[in-house]
C-alpha cells in the first residue's frame, strides 16, 4: 500500500514539474522581452540598456541608476545576465510630465562599465474637458497594476491556471491525505448511524417490555 501511494506521489510530482516547465518557460520569455528603446507613460517607464561586449567573462550583473537630476540618486534592483544583449527594468509611481535621468550599468569580474546618462519625460495627464462622461470606454489603456507581475496575460491566465493545477495536484498526490480524511469521515458517519439505529431499537424493545401484558 505504501509503495503504491509513493509511486502515485512520484507520478503526480512529475506531472507538476512538467506543468511548471510548460507554464514558466513561456512566462519567462514574456517577462524577459524588452522594448528596443526606453518607453515612458504618465506614471511608469521601462528603462532599456544593452551590453555589447562582455570581454572574457559573460557572467554579468546589470542595473540602472536614475533620478530627477543627473546626479542619479536612485538605483534599480540588480539583475544577472549571461552574455551581451538588452536588459530592462520598469519603474512605477513616477510623476506625470516630469523629466527623469538614467544610465545603464554592467559589472563582471573585469570591472564595472557605466553607460551614457540619458533622459526621458513622462507623459502629462489628459486634461478634463468639463463634459460629462458617457460611460463608454473602448480600447482604453491604463497604468493600474493588473496583479502580481503587471502583465495582463500572466496575471489573468497563466497564474490562475498554475494555481488550479497546483490545487489539483495537491489533492491527487495524497500529500494532504484528503481522500483518507473523507474515508474516515464516512466511516465515522456510518458508525454514528449504526449506533443511533441500535439505540433506537433497544429503546423500542424496552418500551415493549414495559407494556407487555401479564399472563
List the topology elements:
Elements: H1 2-32, E1 39-40, E2 45-51, E3 59-67, E4 74-75, E5 79-82, E6 85-91, E7 99-108, E8 111-114, E9 118-121, H2 152-172, H3 178-210
Antiparallel strand pairs: 1-2, 2-6, 3-4, 3-5, 3-7, 7-8, 7-9
Helix pairs in contact: 1-2
Mean pLDDT: 76
CATH superfamily of the largest domain: Immunoglobulins
Q: SSE order in H/E notation?
A: HEEEEEEEEEHH
Relative helix content = 25-40%
Q: Which structural class do you get from the secondary structure elements?
A: alpha+beta
Low-confidence runs: 24-30, 132-146
What oligomeric arrangement do these chains adopt?
Answer: single chain
Strand content: 15-25%
Largest sheet: 6 strands, antiparallel
CATH architecture classification of the largest domain:
Sandwich
- The total strand number stands at 9
Shape: elongated
CATH-defined fold name of the largest domain: Immunoglobulin-like
Q: Specify Rg, calculated over alpha carbons.
A: 32 Å
CATH level 1 class label of the largest domain:
Mainly Beta
Count helical runs: 3
Q: How many distinct domains?
A: 2
- Give the termini separation: 61 Å
Report a brief summary of the structure.
Helices cover about 40% and strands about 25% of the residues. Strands 3, 4, 5, 7, 8 and 9 form a six-stranded antiparallel sheet that branches. The chain has a three-stranded antiparallel sheet with strand order 1-2-6, with no helix packed on it.
